[in-house]
Amino acid sequence: MEVIKLAVEKIKEEMSKESNPYIAYIGNYVLENIEVNKPAAEKIAVGSKTISESFKKVQGEARKIAQNGIAMLAEREVISIVTKYFEFEGVQSSVEDIQTKAEVIEFPKKESIEDKPKQAQIDFDASLDDFLK
Predict the structure, then answer these.
(1) What are the residue ranges spanned by the domains of the chain?
(2) How many CA atoms lie within 13 A of 130 on its CB side?
C-alpha cells in the first residue's frame, strides 16, 4: 500500500504545480483509478509515468487527426489514451464519473422578419423635380 500512497502524493504534487485544467482532469482520473492498478502506481512512484507525459500523448494523438491545425478528441478518446499510457489493467470510474460540470449557455433568440411587429406605412411622395427647383 505504501507504493500507492507515494504515487498519489506524486500525482497531487504534479497537479498542484500545473494550472492547466486538462492536467487536473487527467490527474483526477488517475487518482480515481490508481488503487486498482499497483503496477501503474509503481511507475508513477519512481517517476517514469507522469500526468504531463500522458497529456503529451493526448496532444500527439490530436495532432495526427488535426485538419487545418484544429483537432478535437472526445472524452472517451482522451481517457483511452491516458489509460493506455499509464498501463491501467482495470478502471473503477467511468467517463461520466469524472466529467466536469459544464454550464449551459443559452443565447438570445434572434428575431426573424416574421417576428418583428409591422410598422405603420409612411406615405412618402417625392419627386426629383421638387428638389431641382
Answers:
(1) 2-98
(2) 3
